[in-house]
Amino acid sequence: MVKNCRQCGKTFEGHARRLYCCDKCSRLFQVKLNKARIINKVTVTPEPVPEAAPRPLVNPDTIRMNEEAKKLGMSYGQYDAYLRSIKDREERERRKRGL
Questions:
Q1: What are the start-end ranges of the H helices in 41-75?
Q2: Which domain holds residue 82?
Q3: Measured between alpha carbons, how far is 25 from 37 in angstroms, rounded to an integer?
Q4: What is the pLDDT of residues 3-15, one digit of tens each?
Q5: 65, 80 in Cβ contact below 8 A?
């Protein structure tokens, strides 16, 4: 198939997808295309994100629960499980009374 080179305009024998007569023309066209993209590129500067207020490193409730756990000689996890078991027990008793 006889085609015309996109870069230099020479005629050449090429396959269906080939657009340039040689690698040099291909590279020159890509450089020209990239320069055009850079020139036409619109740079958008993102809006500055307002800084959030600094959060406390530890939840005050966690500190309080940890202190209560230490008074009872437990770890925080043990104390949390203990409180949940008390809460569950009370919930079961409320259901029994309601039935």
A1: 60-71
A2: 60-98
A3: 18
A4: 788 778 788 777 7
A5: yes
Using DSSP's 3-state secondary structure scheme, residue 7 falls into coil
Is residue 27, in this structure, part of any structural domain at all?
yes
Task: Give a yes or no: residue 71 inside a domain.
Answer: yes
Question: CA 80, CA 68: separation in Å to the nearest integer?
Answer: 10
Q: Residue 45 corresponds to which amino acid?
A: T
Mark residue 68 as left, alpha or beta (left: phi above 0; alpha: psi -120 to 50; beta: remaining).
alpha
Q: Is residue 77 part of a domain?
A: yes
Tens of pLDDT, residue by residue over 15-45, are: 777 777 788 888 888 888 777 777 777 665 6
Q: In which residue are the tokens 């198939």 written?
A: 1
* Total domains present in the chain: 2
Spatial separation of the C-alpha atoms in residues 61 and 34, rounded to whole Å? 58
Helix (H, G, I), strand (E, B) or coil at 2: strand
| Phi and psi at residue 21, to the nearest 5° | -75, -25
Q: φ and ψ at 69, to 5 degrees?
A: -65, -45
Q: Which residue is associated with the tokens 């230099």?
A: 8
